[in-house]
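Action item from last meeting closed. Structure (155 res):
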């Protein structure tokens, strides 16, 4: 599934999806228009990039499972570099899948800084200072946390 956006083009995090409960607990009613991005087609004036297209008008009733499908769990395949100084300040690239919903990264329980979501498959973050040793890297995502045990080593 694709990421979802509001009318301004800002990505909608799962926790902020504009919907309310209805009598059926498995159904939600959309309270504001929700859009998806699609590539421009051959008949569009623009030739490159994407455009917002209405996915769910306000008032639409959809299953919670359909909302959940728009927010697949992230995976992490690599942390590069995997080592750095105890003083912190190393810019780390994390690669994987479904990373566009990442809201934070911690190294041994301490938040990294300057998080940049580059794409669905890549984020960058600056390491905090920590004592020497291997620490878990935890990526906070719309669908939950992804933990890489001993994912980064401070030297």
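Sequence:
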């Amino acid at each position: 599934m694709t990421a979802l956006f509001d009318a301004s083009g800002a990505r909608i995090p799962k926790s902020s999806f504009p919907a309310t409960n209805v009598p059926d607990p498995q159904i939600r009613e959309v309270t504001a228009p929700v859009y998806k991005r699609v590539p421009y087609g051959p008949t569009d004036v623009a030739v490159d990039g994407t455009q917002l297209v209405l996915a769910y008008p306000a008032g639409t009733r959809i299953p919670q499972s359909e909302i959940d499908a728009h927010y697949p769990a992230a995976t992490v395949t690599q942390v590069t570099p995997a080592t750095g100084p105890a003083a912190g300040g190393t810019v780390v690239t994390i690669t994987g899948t479904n990373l566009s919903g990442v809201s934070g990264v911690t190294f041994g329980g301490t938040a990294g800084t300057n998080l940049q979501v580059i794409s669905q498959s890549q984020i960058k973050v600056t390491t905090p200072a920590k004592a020497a040793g291997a620490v878990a890297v935890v990526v906070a995502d719309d669908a939950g946390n992804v933990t890489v045990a001993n994912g980064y080593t401070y030297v």
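Note appended to the action item: Helices lie at 64-69.
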